[in-house]
Please model this.
Amino acid sequence: MKLPPCLDAQSAALFDRPGMAVVRARGKDARDYLHRRLSQNIQRLEVGQWAYSTLLTGDGKLLADLNVYAIADSDFLLVAPPACRESLAQHLDRYVIMEEMEILDESAGWSVMEIMGGASAGVISALFGSEVKAGAFETVSSGLVHATQGFVVPGFQLLAELDAKEGLWSRVIAGGAVAQGAEVYEWLRIASGIPLFGQDMDTGTIAVEANLDKGIDFRKGCFPGQEIVARIRNLGHPARELVGVRGPFEAPPDLPLELHASDGTVAGKLTSICVRDGEGMGLATVKWGFREAGTELKCEDGTSLTVSRLPFAVG
Model:
């Protein structure tokens, strides 16, 4: 599938990401507590570094997926999708008992932007005067910036205090980026095979079903859900898996849509889709036996779909 022109090698697209959850964990015991609660190795996270992680229940199901930023040795910011905004601070605070730390919901005070496309590195370098190393973030005026991971085009995420958003937005535009709408970002997310919590996965999803292994350190030792996800990974496979699907659509359908095999067997469900020029590209969670590329499925409305590998091939 062809890249939208605004995401090609010569372009930089600017996206607003409203409604994100932003929580601060601060205090002498914050690092140790987050290490015990999250699936990522927080003890190894140096100041100025960030990592992708998950927060799981004891049976390996998702409560949130999030980025963790080590602002200082005892000060961490956690940023998660909008569906986590009302619950993330509560989930993290629930088991703080004797620890010397506090969990603060700062969602109302922050904004998140993303600059994506082949020219995004040049925009960031011109604005902030330095390159951002992989796995690290740079502190900028009233916020921080880091390279994104997992997208089919290079990009950067900019986390800024809300009162600085307008100024930073204007600077990025003046630096050569062009503001784009949510539909273009959704195309990019789906093409990259990145599931969205609250849409493609929820509290009934086991982390490894959604291809979230990159957010789990299987060697770090105990954390909630560790035994379940390790057993699935080492001794078998998940019952379901996130896959890509393609098929003809005139317009995006109402989601989710149940998917069926040729014999009528329920195979899974379609949860995300974008449509361009009559062709649909989407994300679906299907039973293990229907995950192979080339598998033919049908939506409950009769539309035929073909399973594709993730990420999608774009150019």
